[in-house]
Prior knowledge:
This protein is of the alpha+beta class. It is 40% helix and 16% strand. It folds into two domains: 95 residues, 2-Layer Sandwich (Phosphorylase Kinase, domain 1), CATH 3.30.200; 200 residues, Aminoglycoside 3'-phosphotransferase, Chain: A, domain 2 (Alpha-Beta Complex).
Amino acid sequence: MSVYTEVGRDQLIAFLADYAVGELVHYQGISDGIENTNYFVTTDKGEFVLTLFEHHDFGELAYFLDVMTFFFEHGIPSAHPAADRQGLYLKKLCGRPAALVMRLDGRGVNQVASLNQCAAIGDMLGQMHIVGQKFQSRRSSQRGPDWRIDTAQRLLPLMDAEQADCLKNELAFQKGYADLDLPWGVTHSDLFRDNALFDGDQLKGIIDFYFACDEYLLYDLAVAVNDWCVNDAGTLDHNRYQALMQAYLKHRHLTEAEQANWNLVLRAAALRFWLSRLQDKLFPREGEMTQIKNPDAFLTILLQHRHHPLSADVF
């Protein structure tokens, strides 16, 4: 979440007039995250998050809002989009598609996650992967292997020799990713610590489903492990890993193929975020309030998976 498109107060008041959400009291930009423009909006009837979509058109966005609504209706604590007076979830604001979503309680985890928080995320992700099998809409990943190859080619000329060699080697290692025979379905694909809201160790909600897509369920799990299970040094921690995985496996056991390809998928998830953060750093977008996250954090995770593969004994 960031602010790339500035919304004036009068513009927001006119936008809110189409909703039965009360009168505007206060609003402020959100700097966390990096993809869309986001504001906290407070009215005299409640609190909301306003998102202006910087990369998606109206046709694409219906899928994401359907995902959020589906999980909300199936007991997953996700934010529900607000409908305007015509029953529409999507409108236009400042030339961008925009949605108003209920603001959930809690805060994102900005520090190293506790063991209980790791377990809570593993538990909720396992539930999401079970109920998500009933979701009917389909959407292919926009950050899959083809995107990783294309982005790598764009970045390679700007990298030092050591990192370029690492990237080329990793692309070769992951060449068969798209052909793996693994369970798949709707995934969050971006379940980072800032996309889960906690009150202490109590999980209050999952947010930011705007990378949701059809992917290997194992990839969704790998994304979570790579972020939630790090320690103060930025490397993966065994106790956090065990806590998350054991909670997840209470809902869904991994197949033999998933166990055999665990290291590959962990590396694919690490590579995806190393590349996207490196792209944001080398080709920054202008914004009123933006956050560019450190790409080296995921290079560290990738190198750990290359040299010290996680043990499968938790399975």
